[in-house]
Amino acid sequence: MEMDLNEKLGQLIYNLGSMSGLAVGFSGGVDSSLLLKVAHGVMGRNVLAVIVDTPTMPRRELQDALDFVKQAQVNWQVIPADHLQIEGFAANPANRCYLCKREMFGRIKKVAQESHLEWIADGSNLNDLAEDRPGMQALRELGIISPLLEADLTKEEIRQLARRMQLKTWDKHANSCLATRFACGQEISLPKLRQVEEAEAYLNDCGFRQIRVRSYDHAARIEVSPEERAKFGDLQLMDAVHQKLKELGFVHVSLDLQGYRQVKAEKQP
User: Fold this and answer.
1) Same-domain check for residues 152 and 35
2) Does residue 263 sit within a domain?
3) What is the pLDDT of residues 124-151, one digit of tens each?
4) Which among 58, 55, 56, 36 is positioned nearest to 47, based on CA atoms?
């Protein structure tokens, strides 16, 4: 028999209630925001939000995460990590996400141990099981728990609960790390990451909410949500976006006519 949303929330609270202390890998997205909110309500100051600051995290996302933990008045800590220094990461192999998660949550685990927190959690949910996520293997190896997943919560249900709790992240679009903008096998560097980040920030300033700028060496392919594609009917906007991305160093700029969708990692063309 399937549980309704209130029963799932109750299960989440019950599971968290059995823990003496918890470190939450916090990204600022709706999933980890809901987990942090509920955990803080259950455990209070025995919860620590750990934000891993990496070159693959957009500066705006970092600021959003900081704004949330400060407003929520939870304990938090920012730890730096340079994923580009992880052996093999910059070559962008098919298991890049595994390398990233292993490094990131390895650092979070160390912080948790130093803070005498027994448990470490991430914000994975039921929908993540249907996707190609090599990083989940690293979580299992490190003993990281996924309370939202264990409570059988889907992404949509998490948004419903976040809205009910008046979390400002309830309708925030998912924003994966900047490394996902590069096809497998295409080398990742700090200048390339900053180039993509600036392009997406500009598009965000233009009013787009769901954005991906895929980088193929000197070419950029823009993806926006299907319902936002019509905005490019404005030729002035199209010209302005083209000019900005040219200034950022892209020689060719194109628009994906299908719009943004979650797909498995692309291979280098």
Assistant:
1) yes
2) no
3) 999 888 666 778 889 999 999 999 999 9
4) 36
Burial of 248 per CB tally in 10 Å (0-12, 13-18, 19+): middle
Amino acid of residue 123 = G
What is the pairing mode between strands 252-255 and 47-53? unpaired
Mean model confidence pLDDT for the chain: 93
Of 138, 164, 190, the domain-final residue: 164
CB 266 within 8 A of CB 184: yes
Identity at 237, one-letter amino acid code: L
